[in-house]
Each structure stands twice: as C-alpha cells, then as structure tokens.
C-alpha cells in the first residue's frame, strides 16, 4: 500500500513542479519585451518544365481457352508498331527515346522529330525532354489483326502514367474477353487497387489489390475477376508510383469475329464530359451493332444526364437519348441507333460527376464458318478539350474529327470556334497549315488525304484553338479498308504539356543557413 501511495505522491509533486514552472515562465514572459524576429526573405524560383512520357501497348494479347470463335484464334500474325512524335516551341531542342520496359533503346528522337518502330515485342516507354521548355509528346501503338477471333485494328494513343485512371468500355459476357493491362515504368513497386462497375452496380473483384514490379507488366483477365458483365467500367488507382493502364476488348459471335479494340483512360468524372471522334455509318434503332453511349455516375447519389449529339449541321435529336437517369454505381448503355451516317461529338451534362465513352462499329461480310457478319468495333473515350498533338497510325486512312462544344447549353450555342491545324513531317517541320472553323454546336471532319498531297508523310497532327479556347474537342479516326470490311480505331490527342512554373521559396534567417 505504501508503495502505491509513494507513486501517487511523486506524480503529484511532479505535477506541481510542472505547474509552477509554467507559471514562472508565463510571468517572465509578461515582464520581458517581445524579441524582434528577423525578416523572412521570399524569392521567386522558376521550376522548368518537366520531361514527359507515355507508355505504349505491345502486340495484341491472343485469347486463350475461350471456347468461342475460330478454331485457330490467330490464323495470321498480328502486325504491331509504335509511332512517336515530339515537338517543342521556340526552337527548343528535343531529346527523346523509345525504350523497351527492360531499358533497351528502340529509337532516338532529336530536334523535333518522329519515329516509327515496327514489330515491337512488348510494352514500350516514350520519353522526351526539351531542356526545361514545354514539350509535346504523342505516341500511338497499333496492332493490326486481319483474321481470326481478334480481327481488328487495335490502336490507341499511348497513355501517360497516372495514379488514377478510368477505363470505360469492354465486356465479360459470353463470347467476350476483357484483358486489363497494367504497366509500371518506374523503379519501385506500385500497389494498384482495382474497382469495377457493371449494369447492376459495383462488381466485387476477388484480388482487387495488385502489385506491379518496377519496369514490369501485369495482365488481369477480367473474365475471371469480374465475370458475366455485359457492360464494364474499371477504375485503376495506384499508390507508391504511377502506372499506365488500358483494356483489350474482344468479342466473337459463334465462329465470327465481332470486334477488337484497346480501351484507354477516359476523362475523370466531371459534371460535363465530351466524347470526340465518333464517326458512324448508317444504323437502325434495333441494330445490335448500332453505336452506344456508355455512362456511369460513380458517386453515391447518381445523376440525371442530358446528352447532346453534335452533327455536321448542328445538334441532332435522337428519341430516347436526350435525358437519362443514371442510378448510382450502375453502368448504363444508351443506344444511339438511327443516327445518320457522319461525324459526331457527344456532350454529356449531368447533375453530378460522370464518366463516358462511345462505341461504334463497322459491319463487314459474313464469316467463313457461319453467315454472321464480321464486325469491327472502336471505342471513343471522353477527353479534355483544347489544344493537343496526335500521332496517326502509318498506313491507315485517317480522318480528323473536330467538334465545337462551348461552355453552356451545347444545343443552343452560337458563334464559331476557330483554330490552327498543323500537319507535321518526320523532322517536325510543318507540311501543311490550315485554318479550322466549326460552328458552335456542330462537328466538322476532314480526311488527311484532302489536307496534304501525301498523307503518308504526316507523323503528327496538331490543333491549336484560337485564344486558348476550350471549345474545340477533336480526335483522329484511323481506318484500314479490307475486302471483308473496314477496321477502325479512335486516337485521342495527347495531354497538353506542363510548362515552367514559379514557386515562392522563403529563407528563414533564424536557421543560420547560408
């Protein structure tokens, strides 16, 4: 008992001493004059523009064990390639490389230059720098498969590594394959968390956390991780680094190919999203291959969305497609069948944040083993508007699609959105320059073959809106005509470069530095 008492006494004495010390300090402070603190100097320091990068897909992933389609899923060898173009303003010198994931050098960029590397065997990393000046980098990966289950032009603008990416597209329904590809170009392991949504709401993924090692690629077969989902949206969130992500989407009907494409990250959830580069053929309202708009409101409250289709002559009314209620966390596919053939820009205004993309098809001739027509499918993702640089796919028929979607009500917008179009050659020089003018609330399209004498020389397409306007949204549509039908893909412009920034740096003299 005495020991317990002694402990309490010591704690009490200690507390009294501490209180007394605090009181003495307070009284001393009240009597002393406040010390004059030395002035803190603030300097403005300019941080140069950082290098830029993009990660490009390798050859198409061949389907395995689907039990569907042709007896040989790949009767022809895929034709993979990567094209890259880098551009800096004010005569700045660009240095860059195209590397394999293991660091092997595949191509060099010098000055404002472009390069194409055929027969790539895996994912590649494009890097460009301009000694502190802003530099634009655009790269496109393509895989041409002319027969078999994966028949299609699988081409896409190479994504920039990011900590958060939304992939709006794909399916794991019967006859479909969806392969999620994660590439870590960094030097440390990245921890990736996957989330998925389907038509009935969030989809539980058994192994939602994936570790991707440095300079490594991991493929997640969503047919096993998120089976029987007719409509998919996948979010890829990363800690401990940044990864590039895309989804390879493929489908067959019976023994006949029904489309293959790469789904790249769409614009992050926002109350307004714009989908450029929608180039459709004639379709009926009940066609299984009619265009569709995929939407998701991932927030807890859902959203009501207003959809505007901007065509060549202005907004196009499509019965049943103007307004749609989006239940929270449920993927909605809105049919766009019945649209007249032509180029469109899709504008979605919602009461809450949404993500969006558009799928459209090219229907070809019947298959070799059954009368089902061959189908090719392209996915156009929502993208930020404004200036951008894109790399066309060599050897394809390329169309520039530009929509004018100013702020406010797109259906009643007036005026004209204008800008400058530059077509670049292999050395970065301008092969041709044109003025672009699109009436507000409409979409214009131009074949590259009509803009430059030899479109095969074009390695980059640059659109610069006047006065920094964000009204222009654009993309390239690449097509490969074949005897059994047209193959197609949509190429978004690369993200705008990050310029030099100025930061305030404070120097505290009390630290005694200097």
Fold topology:
Elements: H1 2-31, E1 41-47, E2 52-56, E3 79-88, E4 95-100, E5 105-110, E6 114-118, E7 124-129, E8 135-145, E9 152-157, E10 164-168, E11 176-184, E12 190-198, E13 201-203, E14 209-212, E15 216-221, H2 222-225, E16 233-239, E17 244-253, E18 256-263, E19 270-280, E20 292-296, E21 303-311, E22 314-316, E23 323-326, E24 332-335, E25 342-366, E26 373-381, E27 388-390, E28 397-404, E29 416-424, E30 430-439, E31 443-447, E32 460-465, E33 472-482, E34 485-491, E35 501-507
How confident overall, as mean pLDDT? Answer: 87
Helix share of residues? under 10%
Quaternary organization: single chain
Biggest sheet overview: 8 strands, antiparallel
Distance between the termini: 60 Å
User: Ranges with pLDDT <50 over ≥5 residues?
Assistant: 1-34, 65-70
- How much β-strand is present in the residues? over 45%
Gross geometry: globular
What structural class results from the helix and strand content?
mainly beta
Count of helical segments?
A: 2
The total of beta strands comes to 35
Rg over CA atoms, rounded to whole Å, is: 28 Å
């Amino acid at each position: 008992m005495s020991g317990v008492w002694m402990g309490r006494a010591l704690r009490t004495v200690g507390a009294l001493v501490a209180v007394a010390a605090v009181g003495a300090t307070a009284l001393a402070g009240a009597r002393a004059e406040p010390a004059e603190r030395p002035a803190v100097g603030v300097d403005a320091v300019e941080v140069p523009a950082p290098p830029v990068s993009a990660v490009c897909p390798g050859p198409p992933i061949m389907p395995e064990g689907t039990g569907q389609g042709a007896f040989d899923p790949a009767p022809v060898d895929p034709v993979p390639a990567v094209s890259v173009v880098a551009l800096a303003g004010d005569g700045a010198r660009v240095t860059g490389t195209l590397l394999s994931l293991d660091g092997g050098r595949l191509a060099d960029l010098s000055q404002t230059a472009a390069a194409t590397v055929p027969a790539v065997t895996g994912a590649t990393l494009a890097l460009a720098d301009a000694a502190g000046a802003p530099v634009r980098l655009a790269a496109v990966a393509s895989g041409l498969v002319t027969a078999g289950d994966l028949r299609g032009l699988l081409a896409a603008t190479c994504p920039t590594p990011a900590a958060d990416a939304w992939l709006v597209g794909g399916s794991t329904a019967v006859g479909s394959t969806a392969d999620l590809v994660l590439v870590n170009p960094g030097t440390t392991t990245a921890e990736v968390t996957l989330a998925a949504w389907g038509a009935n709401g969030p989809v539980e993924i058994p192994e939602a956390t994936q570790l991707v090692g440095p300079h490594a690629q991991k493929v997640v077969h969503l047919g096993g991780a998120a089976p029987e989902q007719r409509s998919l949206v996948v979010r890829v969130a990363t800690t401990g680094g940044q990864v590039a992500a895309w989804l390879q989407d493929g489908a067959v009907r019976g023994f006949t190919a029904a489309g293959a494409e790469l789904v790249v990250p769409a614009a992050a959830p926002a109350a307004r999203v714009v989908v450029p580069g929608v180039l459709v053929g004639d379709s009926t309202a009940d066609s299984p291959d009619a265009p569709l708009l995929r939407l998701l409101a991932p927030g807890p409250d859902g959203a009501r969305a207003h959809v505007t289709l901007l065509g060549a002559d202005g907004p196009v009314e499509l019965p049943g497609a103007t307004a749609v209620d989006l239940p929270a966390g449920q993927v909605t596919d809105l049919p766009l069948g019945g649209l007249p053939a032509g180029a469109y820009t899709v504008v979605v205004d919602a009461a809450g944040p949404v993500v969006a993309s558009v799928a459209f098809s090219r229907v070809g001739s019947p298959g070799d083993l059954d009368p089902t027509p061959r189908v090719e499918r392209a996915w156009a993702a929502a993208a930020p508007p404004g200036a951008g640089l894109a790399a066309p796919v060599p050897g394809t028929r390329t169309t520039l699609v530009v929509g004018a979607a100013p702020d406010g009500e797109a259906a009643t917008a007036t005026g004209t959105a204008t800008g400058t179009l530059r077509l670049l050659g292999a050395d970065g020089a301008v092969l041709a320059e044109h003025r672009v003018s699109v009436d507000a609330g409409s979409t214009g399209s131009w074949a590259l073959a009509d803009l430059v004498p030899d479109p095969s020389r074009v390695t980059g397409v640059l659109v610069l809106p006047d006065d920094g306007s964000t009204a222009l949204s654009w993309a390239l549509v690449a097509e490969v005509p074949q005897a059994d039908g047209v193959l197609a893909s949509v190429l978004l412009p690369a993200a705008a470069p990050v310029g030099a920034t100025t930061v305030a740096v404070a120097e505290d003299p009390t630290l005694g530095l200097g």
